[in-house]
# Entry
Amino acid sequence: MIRLFAAIGIPEQIRQRLMLLQGGIPGARWSAPENLHVTLRFIGEVDDVTASDIDGMLETLHMPGFDLSLKGVGLFGGKDPHSLWIGVAPCEGLTRLAAKIESLLQRMGLEPDARKYTPHVTIARLKDVPMPRLNGFIADHAVFDSAPFSVRDFGLYSSHPTAHGSQYVLERSYALD
# Structure
């Protein structure tokens, strides 16, 4: 079994800027720079045959590239937050790409993603963090805004758990037109 997701990698210049944000929150486990990405669709654990079928389906996807920028900061987990993220500015190209991937995976027989698509870059996992520090971080970075970057491909990644969090490996890259 292999745990998979489709995502857009973050360019080095933007990754460096995101790394400068990381700090000041005790209990936060900050994302490694090589793990920063915008998830298009979490797929989950599949067998090797299904993984190969997913690769074949993603290879058939055609659409033009687009520009994307990061904007804002937020939390997942409500009153007990578990993830700190940087948002993505509204982008029709990103929405269309995520929808096309979702459609291809459903046509293969995979269950639809039950969650509403909320594009973001997870910058930290949270556990027992002091809320005043977290709220201060959110207030300090609420207006975060990155320069636009070109999205000319996306990837199929595998996720491998380690003692220090998951390690992501790009299994295959797919060019946009």
Notes: Helices lie at 12-21, 48-59, 92-107, 131-141. The mean pLDDT is 96. Strands lie at 2-9, 28-30, 37-46, 66-68, 70-76, 83-88, 120-126, 149-151, 153-162, 165-175.
